[in-house]
Amino acid sequence: MTAVRHHVTIKGVKDGLVFLLDDACELSEVLGELQHKLEKTHEKILTGPIIHVHVKLGKRAASDEDKEQIRGIIGQKGNLLIQSIESDPPEIPLAAPGENLSLLGGIVRSGQTINHNGDLLYMGDINPGGTIVCTGSVYIMGSLRGMVHAGVDGDEQAVIAASHLQPTQLRIATIISRPPDEWGTSDTFMEFAYIKDGQMKIDKVHQFHRMFPAQLQDRNISRS
Fold first, then answer.
1. Contact 21, 56 (CB under 8 A)
2. What local confidence, expressed as pLDDT, does residue 214 receive?
3. Is the model's pTM score more than 0.70?
4. Computed over its alpha carbons, how large is the radius of gyration of the chain?
């Protein structure tokens, strides 16, 4: 007999419950099972005092609308208080180990500037007042709260990516970003900036492979 695959797993943890939602099927299937478990099979368990809930989406990239559907279903149970709905952090699709990609690390503090020739993978934070100027793309495994100028010699194919993208300013080639308070988003997790039709755009890192497939080639990382 074939075992039934569960799309929703509910686990108890120290500070409440974790809902693990399958990322390998249609979201509609997950939502249907979630609704069923909350209304039928787990109804007695999910009653009583307030319970904090963390929802884990695995590798699924959920839109705001998807998250609202999840909130709506779980929120029907008045004692379930959602603390977070999170996907696994995607790997930054660096132009992969390679060709002209150097690795640096540390903290760029206010008043400090790093100048680099080629693509740069930076392991650390860029503080307000700190600056990176690069002829290629810049990938930051940390918080970008300062300024980055990528493609400084005019390369509009350069990109700027960061684990947390909260810059004072971004520049790619000759294009300058809008002020941060005009971005219209508070979700700065795993984003990248790029140029399209002469304007700077911001998108999630998991969209990178669709927009820049040519950059996802095997390369060798050189350490500076």
1. yes
2. 52
3. no
4. 21
